[in-house]
Amino acid sequence: QAKRQGKNTWRWFDERDTEAALEQVQLDSHLRQALTRAEFQVHYQPIVRLTDAGVVGYEALLRWTSPVLGPVPPAKFIPVAEAHGLIEPLGEWVLREALALARTWRQAGETARYISVNVSALQFAREGFVAGIRSLLAAQDVPGEVLMLELTESALISDIPGSADKLRALNALGVRVALDDFGTGYSSLSYLQQLPVQVLKVDRSFVNGVKMHGPMFVQAVVTLAHSLGLIVVAEGVEEPHQTETLLSLSCDLGQGFLFGRPAPFLDPGGDARESALPPAPAALAGGSD
Ligand code: C2E
Ligand code: MG
Ligand code: MG
Ligand code: MG
Predict the structure, then answer these.
(1) Closest ligand 1 atom number to CA of residue 237
(2) Shortest CA distance to 285 belongs to which of 47, 26, 40?
(3) Which residue has the CA at smallest separation from atom 42 of ligand 1?
(4) pLDDT of residue 9
(5) Contact 185, 155 (CB under 8 A)
(6) Which of 125, 145, 148 has the alpha carbon at shortest distance from 233?
(7) pTM summary value
(8) 119 Cα nearest atom in ligand 1
(9) CA 238/CA 9 separation, integer angstroms
(10) Where is region (Disordered) located (predicted)?
């Protein structure tokens, strides 16, 4: 048996490939049903000012618990949804949920915090994306200022002029845009000047790297961002010492397990976590100048 294993090592990989393919098929069919069976949930993770941990907004993070497969992480099912034409209905569902929550906040008099929603490149590329955002805002009767959209560099750089047009149209609605996972993608920074984004989210690998590799990367990003008038969010802040380093680098906002894990908001008006939070800030990153 050992001989067979040694000789036909390729078989092992082959079987793994088959397994992966089967898993994809499974995921695909389960995912299709999930949309109609209320198996999705949106969790919200606070984004805070580093100066005083005041919550300025929340990132909406999709969660799927399949009755058959159990909890499946977004890193696993988002690519499958993209490959099978399911990302648009899914993305629209997340936006609708997030804006419905924003509406309950406004009804409770909370007007400063925003919700940041991840948008897949495929979603963004679709014609009518901006019109869709406009009508979702109108349907919940909330202003665009409640919404931030998180896009990765790869979603924007394939067509910079076209992307810039879309971003301008979103900005005109009051919707702000964040570049997500900044530093992991494209190597040139020249596109930044051409794209009307308001926020850079520094990828967690660099935030964790502050201890290991020194603060140069984050420092460079902050300097660049501030020179362009952008706000910087550090992703994946887990330890107090990271906050201190980030503050010394003039980083504006932070997000990570240190400040709060992604969690569901309870029913409108009945959120237990909300009441434990500091008062709402006046504006995005307000008071951190
Ligand atoms: P992302 O947009 O960069 O989201 C941040 C991820 O980091 C989340 O993972 C979050 O749970 C995790 N995180 C936050 N703080 C910490 C920390 O202190 N330490 C560590 N180790 N992790 C932290 P999650 O929820 O598994 O989502 C993974 C990715 O899936 C997201 O990365 C985003 O790209 C994508 N995603 C999630 N929800 C959606 C969605 O509704 N639509 C789309 N298109 N993509 C989504
Ligand atoms: Mg994100
Ligand atoms: Mg991110
Ligand atoms: Mg990330």
Answers:
(1) 18
(2) 47
(3) 118
(4) 52
(5) no
(6) 148
(7) 0.88
(8) 44
(9) 41
(10) 270-289
Instruction: Compute, in angstroms, the gap from residue 6 CA to the centroid of ligand 3.
Output: 41
- The atom of ligand 1 lying closest to the CA of 117 is 41
Which of the listed residues 44, 48, 61 should we mutate to test ligand 1's pocket, taking the one with most ligand atoms within 8 A of CB? 61
Q: Which two tokens stand for residue 200?
A: 């850079």
Name the nearest CA neighbour of 183 among 210, 202, 208, 163.
202
| Distance (Å) of CA 134 to CA 125, 172, 200, 207, 273 | 16, 10, 23, 34, 30
Give nearest CA residue, ligand 1 atom 46.
118
Calpha distance 90→86 (Å, rounded): 6
Contact 62, 96 (CB under 8 A): no
Say if residues 84 and 54 touch (Cβ distance below 8 Å).
no
Q: Tens-of-pLDDT digits for all 289 residues of the chain?
A: 444 455 555 555 566 666 677 677 788 889 988 988 899 999 999 999 999 999 999 999 999 999 988 999 999 999 999 999 999 999 999 999 999 999 999 999 999 999 999 999 999 999 999 999 999 999 999 999 999 999 999 999 999 999 999 999 999 999 999 999 998 877 677 889 999 999 999 999 988 876 666 788 899 999 999 999 999 999 999 999 999 999 999 999 999 999 999 999 975 444 445 443 434 434 455 444 3
For residue 94, give the ligand nearest its CA: 1
Pocket, ligand 1, Cβ cutoff 6 A: 45, 61-62, 73-75, 78, 91, 94, 118-120, 150, 180-181, 204, 236-238, 255-257, 262
Tokens of 242: 């990271």
- The amino acid present at 66, given as its one-letter code, is S
Rounded to the nearest angstrom, the distance between the alpha carbon of 205 and the centre of ligand 4 is 8
